[in-house]
Amino acid sequence: MGYSRWVNRPHAYSLNPVVSVSDAFTISKGNPYLIPELTDDLFLEYALQFKGNFVSSRFFFNNTTDAISNLVFINDTGSFEFQKQNLGTIRQFGFQLTGTVRVGIVTLNPTFRLYRLNTYSNDLASLYMIKDRQKAGFESGLSTIISLKKEFSVSFLVQYATPKPTIQESTFCDAFYMLTIEKTFKHKIKLGMVSAIPMKIICLSRIRNYCLRFSLQLQRNSQCTFISGMVQTQLPVQHRI
């Protein structure tokens, strides 16, 4: 069982009141009067190890007050104005499951998070007809590592989540995939290639009471990144607790 509290202070861009023009119909600006978000996080966790495998389950609850989010409205010029504001409270509770399972040369690391999210609009948000929201959703992921001969390894990552709302907006993206191939030299240096698998990415952003925006990106060629010079030091283990 654990409890934590932290403060999320607005960054410089959010505090900057200078107007930024994105296009002919959209402007955005910060707010120098923002106050920090305050988040309380409470969880109860149970972990189990068996035959070299690991499973952890967690019940969680977190509450964010004075949540900083975009307030979107149509201004006097008929443009959409995005303005940073403290819009209310976001409360989330649910269940999370993570683990590590080894099957021969394959290591699986699944994760699953099921939650219920409630938002509560403050007086400012209510002036713009932003109502309280209740939404259930989940986040999931799976990473797979295959250890091959001659210190080669192949890993694959996939992540997917349902649309997640804030006080006024909801965002959603397609599943994310990544493939990595690595070679280890003398147990210390790794040389590898990370590639996003060619795919079509659809992103959606919905702003309550106003509009629905779509963005579509077709990625024909994978983007590759070469990583070298990663040194890992392994120390002998004398005691295990």
Question: Would you kindly provide a brief summary of this structure?
Answer:
The protein is mainly beta. It has two helices and 18 strands.
What would you say this structure looks like, in words?
This protein has a single domain (2-231), classed as Maltoporin, Chain A (Beta Barrel), CATH 2.40.170.20. The chain is mainly beta and 241 residues long. The chain has helices at residues 12-15, 123-127, and strands at residues 2-8, 20-23, 26-29, 37-50, 53-65, 68-74, 80-86, 88-103, 106-121, 133-147, 152-161, 164-165, 169-173, 176-185, 189-195, 199-207, 211-219, 224-231. The strands form three sheets. A ten-stranded antiparallel sheet has the order 1-4-5-8-9-10-11-14-15-18. It is 4% helix and 68% strand. The chain starts with a strand and ends in a 10-residue tail after the last strand. Strand 16 (199-207) and strand 17 (211-219) form a beta hairpin. The protein is built from two helices and 18 strands.
- Assign the CATH topology: Maltoporin, Chain A
**How much is the average pLDDT?**
80
Share of β-strand residues: over 45%
Question: From the coordinates shown, what is the CATH architecture?
Answer: Beta Barrel
CATH superfamily: TonB-dependent receptor, beta-barrel domain
* Poorly predicted ranges: 210-241
Q: Determine the fraction of residues in helical runs and give it as a percent range.
A: under 10%
Instruction: Work out the number of β strands.
Output: 18
Our count of domains comes out at: 1
> What overall geometry do the principal axes of the alpha carbons give?
globular
Oligomer: single chain
What sequence of helices (H) and strands (E) makes up the elements?
EHEEEEEEEEHEEEEEEEEE
Number of helices: 2
Query: N- to C-terminal separation?
Result: 20 Å
Structural class: mainly beta
Largest sheet: 10 strands, antiparallel
What is the CATH class designation? Mainly Beta
Radius of gyration: 23 Å
Q: Within the largest sheet, what's the order of strands?
A: 1-4-5-8-9-10-11-14-15-18
